[in-house]
Amino acid sequence: MTLDALDPVIHAPKRLATMAVLANSTSASFGFLREHLGISDSDLSKQMTTLEKAGYIKASKTRGPGGTTTYQITKEGAAAYRRHLAALRAIVGTGE
Amino acid sequence: MESNEEALAAAERAAVAPWIEQPATPWWYIPSFGLLMGAVVLILGERASMSSAWFALSAIAVVFLIGAWLGAVTAHQGVVPRLRSAPPEFVPVVRGYFVGYVLLLAMVVIVYLAADSRVAAVLAAVGTWIGLVVYEKRYTIAADAVRRRLT
Predict the structure, then answer these.
(1) What's the CA gap between B52 and B32, in Å, rounded?
(2) Tens of pLDDT along B59-117?
(3) What is the spatial distance between Cα B66 and Cα B59, in angstroms, rounded to a whole number?
(4) Which residue of B has its CA nearest to A62?
(5) What pLDDT digit, counting tens, does each position of A8-28 carry?
(6) Minimal CA–CA distance to A57: which of A29, A83, A35, A89?
């Protein structure tokens, strides 16, 4: 297994953590992800846009005052995350 | 730049975050769900003595309230963990939740048949309340165990 097997979109630490959260939840809010990652709104927005453009996540927004944005992983995103994690485990030597 | 080992460790911590990083449930979470379950049993149990219109209105109202409850809880918690990926420490907790609900449902049906729907509704409300208190305590212990494992 080589480094080529790693997905460059997911390999960035903040996006890897985001994908790990979304792969293990049916949905997560912008606020929850921001708290988990400990980053600013603008930084998180940038990371989420990158993942959305890759087709790995989808966003849904509730309208009105106090409206929130929630995210879900897509099938493509879940498959890409599984591949990335398997590659990472193989490189580190903990692959199953 | 973090190493691949660090990246893997960060991914493993993030994978359990939906289970262990949720805020505490709001004070109204348990009593309101208990009351809703009591209302469901009461409406179903009293349907024979209600007019069709009144039954339909009550059923629609309670379904709407359950939907609003789910929406409010989800918005407050910020995340809905995926059951299939529960950390091992949570597996007995989740299993206990479902077993507890099946047992409570069976008791409610027995009480409904043996007594009446009002007693069954009270049992559903109080049973749900007690069950959720127990579940929350077990959940907190499991979350602490996961945190200890990851440190």
Answers:
(1) 26
(2) 999 999 999 999 999 999 999 999 999 999 999 999 999 999 999 999 999 999 998 89
(3) 11
(4) B75
(5) 999 899 999 999 999 999 999
(6) A29
- Return the amino acid letter for A12: A
* Sheet hosting strand B79-81, strand order edge to edge: A57-61, A69-73, A25-29, B79-81
Tokens of B125: 């409300």
Chain A closest-CA separation from residue B83 CA (Å): 8
Q: Which residues of B6-29 are buried (b: 16+ CB within 10 A; e: fewer)?
A: ebbebbebbbbbbbbbbeeeeeeb
- CB–CB of B3/B64 below 8 Å? no
Are B18 and A23 in contact (CB < 8 Å)?
no
**3 state DSSP class of A35:** helix
Amino acid at site B30: I
Q: Where are the alpha helices (DSSP H) in chain B?
A: 4-20, 29-45, 52-77, 91-114, 117-150
ipTM of the predicted assembly exceeds 0.90: no
- Chain A residues within an 8 Å CB radius of B74: 27
Q: Is the dihedral of CA A10, A15, A20, A22 positive or negative?
A: negative
A68: left (phi over 0), alpha (psi -120 to 50) or beta: beta
